[in-house]
Structure formats: structure tokens, C-alpha cells
Amino acid sequence: MKINFTEISATKTASGEAMVFLVGEDKKLPPLAQAVNKQAGGALARALTSGKFTGKRGQAACITPPQSVKAERIVLLGTGDAKTLDAQALENIGGALVPHLNNARVKSATIILEHGKGEDTARIAHGANLRSYTFDKYHTKKSADEKPTLAALTIASGHAKAAEKSYAELEKIAEGVFFTRNLVSEPANIIYPESLAAKAKELSKLGVDVEVLGEAAMKKLGFGALLGVGQGSVRESQFLIMKWNGGKKGEAPLAFVGKGVTFDTGGISIKPAAGMEEMKWDMGGAGVVIGLMKALAGRKAKVNVVGVAGLVENMPGGNAQRPGDVVTSYSGQTIEVLNTDAEGRLVLADALWYTQRHFKPKFIIDLATLTGAIIVSLGSSRAGLFSNNDKLSEQLFKTGQKTGEEVWRLPLGDVYDKMINSDIADMQNIGKDREAGSITAAQFLQRFVNNTPWVHLDIAGVAWSKKDTDIVPKGGTGWGVRLLNELVSEYYE
To answer: Of 117, 165, 243, 271, which one is the catalytic site residue?
Structure first.
């Protein structure tokens, strides 16, 4: 969808296919809307007094005006309580508008904003852009009536230049989100370790230094944990390293690490058939790291960042890892693999150790669709946060509230750490008696970060959505790109 900004003084009172006015819970029409109301013989005022429209945030009234009004549609869009219109609310308002216009089969629309700053205008545009995303490349027989119609959105305000400047950076963030959504939405016969690495290499056009290690290089390094996960697949495992050097030369980077299991059957500990098709998005953590690198490079972030991802496919082949196998990780620590479906932590073990050893970053944040237990705990509205650092955890919590990509911190401790001690190795890859599944998984990861400030985000409940929200269509969400970009922008640039 194309988004344009124009000065309100250059906009006729009512023209184009659709005109949109924002109306709060007080149901007062802004001045230009009052002028249109007169042209329309009071149609807008009647819509406000009909009882159906309350001004609730995201609610819309679509009016077909008389011929005296040039616009084919007039849309009143509710903003809710004006006192609560922060950046997140403005984005949600912009996002909520898109399905209303598509349902009305509108191709182009103009939003008239008579109040607010340039940043406010840009946030509305950003929300609309995020909500306009579709992934329908494999639909060959979709009729025109089934496809979204909205192709262009113009926002008229008294600060178009400022809005356009603010939106330029937000658009780069959205491109990172869309890149992640695309990767997560693709089926596993299209996105597998080598093809995912190839997609990441596209970021070199933006100035990202991309390096990919194959299995031979990983064997030489001693990546026994990661390679064990992928040994049952005909697809070769890959190790992805991306570097963006936008900060001071020699300054320690920020590090983001992603789990990239491009399809997870569970291996020999095979998953039930029902719902297994969803395991194409078990590479969601890696997808977020790749999308974040695109967003940071796209907006020329003034910071040094490294993005790392272990890319594997977990299959029950003739050479697959068996329950009871013992592997030696890159750290030298040994792991008893009691359940081959607890594979993500094995991939992350080598990736985390490599990251802290080779880059000595200021912090490491890892993202992984790691446990079903986190969905039981937190549902699909928040990611689970585990950390050895209070300051970084608090920064992420506040950033989550600001962006709407919220996190909730859960505990770590010796009592949980003891639950992954093994009788025959340094550790086992699952805890005992199915207790505290998400916590013991995080406890496992903590053994591979040493004293580096570290956060583990379990995004199993938020990487994919089964329903639409204001700014996220059903499917791959891209959750985490906006959160981590904002963290970098707010605290580290």
C-alpha cells in the first residue's frame, strides 16, 4: 500500500474515493468534518446520533453521502479517549482503519487530521502500513472480491513535511517486520536452512556483513549440540552471522541470537500429526533477528550490532539423533539428549557460546519459539522473559509496554538449575517430571552465556497469530522486530 502525506490546506473539503475523519468519544466533528456535514445534509451528524457509533477506538461508521459531496464514502473513525492517544494507540487507530476500507471495497482514501504533531500523523500511517500486510503468493484462484482493495492512503495534515520525515524511519522498521513475516509464513519446502541463509544474504545490499558457516566449518569448531539436531535431515545445517557496524569503531556490539529450526517434527521424539504443519514457524526467532538487522540497517542505526542464528531442520531420518545420545557442545560441556523435541535449546547452546566468546557483546538477547509451556503460562499476548540482568530486563519491559510487544519476566534459580543435571553428562536437555518447562529451558541456556548480560525471550505464543489484531493480520506476526528496534533506539544509540 502506498502512503502519501499532504498539507491540509491543499486538500479540498471532500474529494476522492473516501474521506476519513477521526472522532473521539465526545462525538464532536472536527471543523472540516462539520463543513462536509453541511454538504451532506447532516448525514455525518445523523451517524453520530444513531446510537451505533460511540467513538470507541477503532470503531467506524461508513457513510454514502449525497451527490452534493464529491467523495464516494465518508468514514468516521473512533479514537476513544483523547487523553490516552499515545504512539501505540495512534498506530492501532491507523491499523483499525484498513479492514474497514477494504470491507467497503475502497481503493484509495484520504485521512483528514486537523490536530496533532507530525509524529502523531506518522504513527497513524505506520499502523495502517503494518495492518496492510498480506501473504497470499500461493493463492492462484483468488477472486478480485476476496483480495484487499486499498492501494493508496493519503494523510492530510498541517505538518506534512514533519510527518513524512518521521514516517521514513518507521517505514524502514515496517520493512523489517514484513521481512520477518514473509520468512515465518513461507512453507518448509521453500524456507530451509540453506534458503533462509540465502535470504539473509540479501541484507548485504544494505551494508550488513553476512557470513554463513556450513556443516564442515561447524564440525571443525565443535558445534556438537547444533549439528546433532540437524543430522537426521537431508538439508545441511547452517550458522548465520550478520554484522551491522553503525556505531563507533571498536565499540562492543549488541548481540541478538535466534533459534532457526526451519521445520520441527520433534525428531525421533516425534510430535503428534495434528498441528504439525505449524512447525514451519519454529524458525521465528531467527526470522526476528534477520528482520531486526534489516530494520536497523535500513534506518542506518548508529550502533554496532551482531545477529546470529543457528539454522537446522529437525527430522526423524535414519541418521537422526536418538533419545539418550550424549553430545559435546561448542563450550565443551556435554549434554544428554533425553528428548529430541527439546532441540531449540541445543541449537542456541552453540550459538550463544559462539556469540559471547567471539564478539564479547554488551549484552545478548536470544529469541526462540522454545516451549509450549510458555503458552500455557502467558497465552498469546506476551513473551516470556528470563534474564541474569535486572537493568536489561526492566528496559525490555518498559519498551514492551510502549510498543505493545509486551514481555513478562519469570524466575531463574538454583532449584531449577538442579533439575537439568544429568546422571551421565554435564546436563540433560529437559527437566524432571515436566515441571517448570519454560524455566528449565531458560536455565539450560544460561549455562552458555557466562557472565554476559543476557535475556532469553520465549516467543512461542507470539510469533504466530490465529486472529487479526489492529496492526497484525492473522499469520506470522514479526513480533520482536519493533520491540528490539525500540530498545536499541531508546537506550543504546
So the answer is: 271
